[in-house]
Amino acid sequence: MPQLSRPPFDPELDAVLALAGDRIPTVTPDLIQTLRETPLPIDVSEEPLRAAGLTRRETTVRGYEGVELAASVIARADHTGTGPGIYHVHGGGMIAGERLVGISQIVPWIVEHDAVAVTVEYRLAPEFPDPCPVEDCYAGLLWTAEHAAELGIDPDRLMIAGASAGGGLAAGTALLARDRKGPDLIGQVLICPMLDDRDRTVSTLQYDDAGMWVRESNRTGWNALLGDRRGTDGVSVYAAPARATDLSGLPPAFIDCGSAELFRDEDVAYATALWAAGVQAELHVWPGGFHGFDMVAPHTALAQAATASRNEWVARLLGA
User: Fold this and answer.
1) What pTM, to 2 d.p., does this model score?
2) 31, 103, 115, 299: least surrounded by Cβ within 10 Å?
C-alpha cells in the first residue's frame, strides 16, 4: 500500500523528532514493561513544583472495587480558604505513566488561580483492563468532590483535565459523572485525547510510522485495555468516548491536538459531536504538531502558542 500524503511536521518540531527518534520505541505487547522503565522525555520530578511555590501532599483514595490508590494533592504553599479544583488524569497509552506525568501542563493554573489539584495513580492495563482504569479515575473524582472542604476546593468550581490516554479517561470520567449524577464538573480539558479504539481514521493511517505515538503503539494500548473486544460492538463509551452517541449535558470542553498526529481525526470528530449535542467546545488543531509536542518540546513556538491558548481558556472558565 503506498504511503498516504500527510501534513508535514512543524520545522522546529521535526528537528526535535530527529534528535529524539531513537528514544521513541514502537510499543508492542512484549515491550510494555520496557516502556514503563524508559525515562520519559518530559520532567516528572518535583523540582518544577517547588520552583513554582507549590506543595505536594500524598494521600490514598479508594478506587474501583475498594482498592487503595496513591494520590497527590498539589496546591500553592500559601493556599488558604477554597479555590478551584483540578482533577488531573495522567497519560501513558493506558499501559504506562504515573500521576505526575503531565503535571507541568496544569502548574500555571494552580499558581495563577490558587487552584488545588488532585492526581490519582489509576491502575494500568493489561494487568488491570477495562473498566479498571476509568472506574479508578471516577472513584478518584468522587473522593475529590467528597473531600473538597478539607482539600480547600470550592465544589462548584471543579474541572477535569488529562492528556493522551489521560484525556480519553478524563472524557470517559466526565461521561460517568453525567450518567451517575456524580460531581458537577464545570469544564473538561482534553489534550490530544485518546478516544477511539476502532483504528480507522485517515490520521491513524497517515501517521502509521511517524511521530511520538504511532499506530502499532496505539493498537497495543487499546488491545491491552480491551483485549478481544477492541473494534467490536462490545466496547463501553466510558472506555472509548468516541463511541458515545449522546454527548448532551456534558461540561464545556477544550480539545487540542496536532495536525500531524494519529489522534487528530478522532479529536476533531469528538469536538464536532459535542457541538452537535449543544455542548460548548473549543478546538485547536496545531499545524505540524506531533502527539504531545507541547510537553516534549515546550521551547518551540508552536508549543508556546498551544500552551497560551489552553491557559487562556482555563482562565476564562475559572472567571479570572
Assistant:
1) 0.96
2) 299
